[in-house]
Design goal:
This protein is mainly alpha-helical. The protein has five helices and no strands.
């Protein structure tokens, strides 16, 4: 993925990583209240999934070999979607 690994893609990846951290911080903050955590477990898990997707996409933008990095994605549904890029 050499031509696509431009400075603009690296900047996009950095923003995705920052957003993932912010989303995880929000989720952790909400988990700090046990009442909120118990009532909204599904929503908190969705917040975690968003952060995981953002991090995976950021790694794709940093990748030297897109195909290799796609296979490293830990989320099956995202990995399958990214396989369609080939």
């Amino acid at each position: 993925m050499a031509p696509a690994n431009t400075a603009s893609h690296r900047q996009i990846a950095l923003v995705l990583e920052e957003l993932a951290q912010e989303v995880e911080t929000l989720g952790a903050s909400l988990c700090g209240d046990m009442d909120v955590a118990m009532r909204h477990m599904d929503s908190l898990q969705a917040i975690d999934l968003i952060a995981q997707k953002q991090r995976s996409l950021a790694k794709l933008l940093h990748a030297d070999c897109l195909e290799t990095e796609v296979e490293r994605i830990g989320l099956d549904i995202l990995r399958e979607r990214m396989r369609l890029l080939r």
